[in-house]
Structures are given as structure tokens and as C-alpha cells.
């Protein structure tokens, strides 16, 4: 009650002219370090106001009080000043993006790996001169990729990206082993089909995973690594196919 009486003369001073209604139940009187001034703080439903009045009859000043931290101004200046510096926000996600892009490297590699040694493979497996079978060995990989890409969405929804990556390694490893040790047409077709299943999952999974782990402002930059991995895989397979023309064991 005493605090209410102390605040009343300040609120209704002739030069104060208050234009809002203050509720006495939320008025508090606070003494500040300066002995010549008294600070009265009033809280309104939406905003905070501070009324400062002198003891010598000066009109109080009505100042809006911000709820922000006083150091926010310095932080804002620091943010503006840091705009000229290099932002390394992409660095924590880069190892994960690079590892995921290696899956697309396999995609590009298996696209071009059969272009060089297909003639030698046809001679060794007994379908030399049969253009249909030669094309089937190459294209069945794309057929498996079609099935893998269709099934990838449901796998990611049920298992998540990391589990799907782990599961996807099974057809990739088995397909590569069967293709390398093939001694008949059926074996090479089955191996290529298994590789295609794994690659089809990767083509859908890698962009989803990169978009999840990459920061928002670097999502476009890091997302390009999936296509870069594909191109590097094609280039690597074509370079490795150069000596296969003279190698009878492909």
C-alpha cells in the first residue's frame, strides 16, 4: 500500500499527462543508484513501460522497455560483420555427404563398366556375335535399377536412411561377386541384375539423405555431389576399360 501511495504523485503530476491506465496492483517502486531520481516501473498486458521522474517536479519520461537482451545489439553487429567472413557451416556434414556420394559413384561405374569388355565377355561365355544377348547383359542392370528405385521409398519410410544404406550393400556386394566369378550367361545376368537393384535404391536414397544431413543454406551445394559422384564413376569405368581390349581375361 505504501508503494502505491509513493507512485501516485508521480503518475498524476501536472506535466506527466498519462495517456494509459495503470493498474495499481502491478506498480512497483525501485530505487536506483542516483540519489536524485526515483524509477517507477509499470507492466502493461502487452508492453513494458518505464517512467522516470525527478524529485524536483520534472515530468516523467515514458520509455518502452524491450524484453530483448541488452547484448543483442552487439550480437547483431557481430552478425553483420561476420557476413564478410567465410562460412564453414557445411564442414560437419561434408564427410557424410561424401560417403553417400560414393554410392552414386558405383552407379556411374556400373553404367560404363560393361562397354569395354563386352566383346571379351561374349567370347568367353559363348554368345559372341549375338547382339541381343550382348545388349541384354548391359541393359538388365537398368531393369534391376527400375525395381530398386520403386521399392526405395517404402524402405526409407519403414527403416530410415541409414538402415536402408546398410541393407542396400547386400545386393551390391553379391552382384559384384557373382559378376566377377561368372562362368555362364545366366550367372552374369543374375549378377548384373543384383547390382541394378542396389543402384536403383541408391539413386533415390542418396539425394534424400543429403537433403536431411546438409544445412539449409548449403543444401544445393552439397546436393550436387550426388551427380558429381555419378560422373566420376562413369569416367573411372571408361579409363579402366581401356586395357580390357587386349586382356582376354577381362
TrEMBL record:
Biological source species: Perilla frutescens var. hirtella (Perilla citriodora)
CC terms in the record's Gene Ontology section: membrane
Family the entry assigns: Belongs to the major facilitator superfamily. Phosphate:H(+) symporter (TC 2.A.1.9) family.
GO molecular function, one term: hexose transmembrane transporter activity
Its membrane topology: Multi-pass membrane protein
Location of the Major facilitator superfamily (MFS) profile domain: 96-250
InterPro entries, per the entry: GLUT (IPR045263), MFS_dom (IPR020846), MFS_sugar_transport-like (IPR005828), MFS_trans_sf (IPR036259), Sugar/inositol_transpt (IPR003663), Sugar_transporter_CS (IPR005829)
Keyword Nucleotidyltransferase: no
Pfam families, per database record: Sugar_tr
Subcellular location per the Swiss-Prot or TrEMBL entry: Membrane
Transmembrane region(s): 132-153, 189-210, 222-242
Swiss-Prot/TrEMBL keywords: Membrane, Transmembrane, Transmembrane helix, Transport
Region (Disordered): 57-77
Keyword Membrane: yes
Name assigned to this protein: Major facilitator superfamily protein
Amino acid at each position: 500500500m505504501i508503494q502505491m501511495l509513493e507512485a501516485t504523485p508521480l503518475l498524476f503530476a501536472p506535466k506527466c499527462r498519462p495517456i494509459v491506465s495503470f493498474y495499481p496492483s502491478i506498480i512497483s517502486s525501485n530505487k536506483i543508484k542516483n540519489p536524485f531520481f526515483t524509477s517507477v516501473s509499470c507492466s502493461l498486458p502487452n508492453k513494458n513501460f518505464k517512467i522516470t521522474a525527478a524529485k524536483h517536479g520534472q515530468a516523467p519520461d515514458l520509455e518502452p522497455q524491450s524484453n530483448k537482451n541488452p547484448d543483442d545489439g552487439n550480437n547483431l553487429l557481430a552478425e553483420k560483420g561476420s557476413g564478410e567472413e567465410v562460412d564453414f557451416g557445411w564442414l560437419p556434414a561434408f564427410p557424410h555427404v561424401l560417403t553417400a556420394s560414393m554410392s552414386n559413384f558405383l552407379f556411374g561405374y556400373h553404367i560404363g563398366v560393361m562397354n569395354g569388355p563386352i566383346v571379351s565377355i561374349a567370347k568367353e561365355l559363348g554368345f559372341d556375335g549375338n547382339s541381343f544377348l550382348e545388349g541384354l547383359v548391359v541393359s538388365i542392370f537398368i531393369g534391376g535399377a527400375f525395381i530398386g528405385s520403386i521399392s526405395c521409398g517404402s524402405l526409407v519410410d519403414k527403416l530410415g536412411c541409414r538402415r536402408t544404406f546398410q541393407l542396400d550393400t547386400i545386393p551390391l556386394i553379391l552382384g559384384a561377386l557373382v559378376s566377377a566369378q561368372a562362368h555362364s550367361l545366366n550367372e552374369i545376368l543374375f549378377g548384373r541384375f543384383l547390382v541394378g537393384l542396389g543402384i536403383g535404391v541408391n539413386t533415390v536414397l542418396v539425394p534424400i539423405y543429403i537433403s536431411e544431413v546438409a544445412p539449409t543454406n548449403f543444401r544445393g551445394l552439397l546436393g550436387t555431389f550426388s551427380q558429381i559422384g555419378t560422373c566420376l564413376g562413369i569416367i573411372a569405368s571408361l579409363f579402366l576399360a581401356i586395357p580390357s581390349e587386349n586382356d582376354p581375361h577381362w
